[in-house]
């Protein structure tokens, strides 16, 4: 069956949206009652065929109440009539506060949710994927990763070489998804790689992270994409639900070595097709996405855990080495400076020279990875903060 694209908007941009629509000689029609919906459908023969109309579902949802059974059938009826009888183009628009609920309730009728502001050219700079950003912004991304990811410099070079290849081959419809498999010991920057890509490309969106260490082998695939409705214990899948709720185009699949064959086969097909369908019948198109798979597996065990077919689907496979003492020292300086700056900006607190000396006096040789080193940095800063509190917080008289 045919499905529509739903365009969501931020109500704070409504004046700009109305100006853009009017400038294009179009019209916004706000559906605020079932009777108005009926009148519009009955008068469709009098509407101008050359004109675009923006039908806003928001008022009818608000007037009918938040429960989907109050408004879903009305919207479904209108969508069906649109496909059957209306010869002119309609944009279906909605306040973004309600778009997820509508898409979830009408998943058989809605293909995807896009930004109305981007469609109208109001916010053309909102690009969340690595394919469509400019060459200049790609260089900025590379510099951002380089300044925040410590160690494994060869990986960073390889990563951006492969990303450049992906940008080319995605544009000619050869490669849908960019996928990276990273193995190595804990605390050497595997998950940080995904977080940095996410922070640069979509800092205002929820980070999509799936930890397969939390899944049981028996129900792992159902945990990812959901189990069919009607089954005892049926639920939404974590992967499909998080993609549904976030526009971010970076996905982290952590502890991939703990997944079983069923999950591996799922990702084998996903990396090949660039899309998947969840248990509710919703299709998710992951074109232009980056998926980072991380694992603590040893390099010599990779062939035992991952099939040759799955390995061949990864755009890049890499083993992270341990961080050197010089790199740990560099991280120490960076992290302490960052945290102290945030404390000063937020709480207006400056540490004394003696406190700073105690904070920086960390022997990096004692810490095997950056995660443990980070905990020690935070502990020392917290201890110095506690020392300051009696002097900073005098009781009010």
What topology does this entry show?
Elements (H helix, E strand, L loop, with lengths): L3 E6 L4 H10 L3 E4 L3 H9 L10 E4 L1 H7 L7 H14 L4 E6 L3 H7 L4 E6 H4 L15 H14 L4 H19 L6 E6 L6 H12 L6 E4 L8 H6 L12 H8 L4 E5 L6 H13 L1 E3 L5 E3 L4 E6 L6 H4 L2 H6 L2 E4 L5 H23 L5 H8 L9 H23 L5
Parallel strand pairs: 1-4, 1-5, 2-3, 3-4, 6-11, 6-12, 7-8, 8-11
Antiparallel strand pairs: 9-10
Helix-strand string: EHEHEHHEHEHHHEHEHHEHEEEHHEHHH
The portion of residues assigned to helices is 40-55%
What is the name of the CATH architecture of the largest domain? 3-Layer(aba) Sandwich
Distance N terminus to C terminus?
72 Å
Mean pLDDT: 86
Poorly predicted sequence stretches spanning 5 or more consecutive residues: none
DSSP helical segment count: 17
Radius of gyration: 26 Å
Task: Provide structural commentary.
The mean pLDDT is 86. The protein is of the alpha/beta class. Helix 7 runs antiparallel to helix 9 (190-201), helix 15 packs parallel to helix 17 and helix 16 packs antiparallel against helix 17. It starts with a strand and ends in a 5-residue tail after the last helix. Helices cover 47% and strands 14% of the residues. The strands form 3 sheets. The protein has a 5-stranded parallel beta sheet. A 5-stranded parallel beta sheet has the order 7-8-11-6-12, sandwiched between helices. Strands 9-10 form a two-stranded antiparallel ribbon. Strand 2, helix 2 and strand 3 form a beta-alpha-beta unit. The protein folds into 3 domains: 4-119, Rossmann fold; 135-319, P-loop containing nucleotide triphosphate hydrolases (Rossmann fold), CATH 3.40.50; 325-389.
């Amino acid at each position: 069956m045919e499905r529509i694209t739903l365009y969501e908007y931020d109500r704070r941009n409504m004046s700009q949206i109305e100006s853009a629509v009017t400038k294009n000689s179009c019209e916004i029609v706000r559906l605020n009652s079932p009777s108005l919906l009926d009148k519009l459908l009955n008068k469709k023969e009098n509407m101008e065929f050359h004109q675009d109309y923006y039908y806003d579902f928001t008022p009818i949802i608000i007037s009918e109440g938040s429960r989907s059974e109050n408004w879903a059938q009305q919207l479904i009826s209108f969508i069906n009539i649109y496909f059957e009888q209306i010869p002119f183009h309609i944009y279906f628009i909605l306040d973004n506060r309600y778009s997820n609920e509508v898409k979830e309730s009408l998943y058989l009728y809605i293909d995807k949710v896009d930004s109305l502001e981007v469609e109208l050219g109001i916010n053309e700079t909102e690009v969340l994927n690595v394919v469509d950003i400019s060459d200049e912004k790609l260089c900025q991304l590379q510099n951002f990763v380089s300044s925040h990811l410590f160690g494994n410099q060869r990986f960073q070079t390889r990563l951006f070489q492969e990303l450049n290849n992906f940008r080319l081959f995605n544009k000619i419809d050869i490669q849908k998804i960019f996928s990276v498999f990273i193995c190595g010991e804990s605390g050497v920057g595997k998950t940080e790689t995904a977080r940095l890509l996410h922070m640069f490309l979509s800092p205002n969106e929820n980070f999509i992270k799936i930890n397969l260490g939390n899944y049981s082998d028996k129900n792992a695939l159902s945990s990812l994409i959901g189990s069919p409705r009607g089954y005892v214990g049926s639920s939404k899948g974590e992967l499909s639900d998080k993609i549904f709720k976030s526009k971010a185009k970076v996905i982290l699949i952590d502890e991939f070595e703990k997944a079983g064959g069923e999950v591996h086969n799922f990702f084998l097909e996903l990396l090949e097709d660039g899309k998947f369908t969840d248990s509710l019948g919703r299709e998710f198109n992951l074109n232009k996405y980056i998926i980072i798979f991380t694992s603590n597996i040893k390099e010599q065990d990779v062939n035992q855990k991952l099939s040759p077919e799955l390995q061949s689907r990864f755009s890049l496979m890499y083993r992270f080495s341990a961080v050197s003492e010089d790199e740990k020292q560099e991280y120490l300086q960076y992290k302490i400076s960052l945290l102290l700056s945030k404390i000063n900006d937020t709480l207006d607190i400056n540490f004394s020279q003696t406190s700073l000396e105690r904070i920086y006096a960390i022997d990096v040789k004692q810490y095997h990875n950056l995660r443990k080193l980070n905990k020690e940095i935070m502990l020392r800063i917290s201890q110095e903060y506690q020392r300051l509190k009696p002097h900073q917080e005098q009781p009010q008289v």
